[in-house]
Specification:
Bound molecules: copper (II) ion
Shape: rod-shaped
Number of strands: 9
Structural class: alpha/beta
Order of helices and strands: HHHEEEEEEEEE
Distance between the termini: 131 Å
Largest sheet: 4 strands, mixed
Strand order of the largest sheet: 2-1-4-7
Oligomer: single chain
Amino acid sequence: MEEEKLSEHIEKETNPENSLDSVQQQKIEENTGQRIKDSPTSPSEEAEEPENLTRAQRRKIKRKLFKEEKGLGREKKAKKKKVHTILLITLFLVIISTVIFYKINKGISTTNIIPTGETKEFNIIARQFSFSPSTIEVNRGDKVKLTVTSVDVTHGIAIPQYGVDEILRPNRAVNIEFIANKPGKFPLVCSVACGTGHTGMRSRLVVN
Ligand SMILES: [Cu+2]
């Protein structure tokens, strides 16, 4: 029957063992001395082989992972080192610039200034466009007391290096006090725009 042949053919195709006819099977069995059905690929070996393979693969994968981890670790370490270096450089630059800023703004170190116990008082008149007197001279360590009065328009008085900056309203005296703890010559300027000659309105503080 056609149908029987077809199903037989399909069976042969799907199962290679069935594709050997009984004669072929017998021949092979005689040559090898083994039964084909008990041939090397017994179930137990079949189960072992993939396990072995898996172990080997596992080992391989483990090794690979280990290497990758090691590499990552090294990368991390390198990154950390880089960040530390950058931080150190930044810190160093910040310290250096702070010191420079301090030196520029405060002049020579003020830590060794011993107060003289003397107080120097000055009355300063501000007008367009000058301060009078034009120079104030004191000694290092003196206490300086300024009484400043504008006699015309609103002015300002500023000694930036001593942190002094006050507005002078017309005819209102302003009192300023500080210790002359920085030696040098410092500009005393008007800090409020008071007219055309404003920028030239300046005096000088001399600390000996
Ligand atoms: Cu001014």
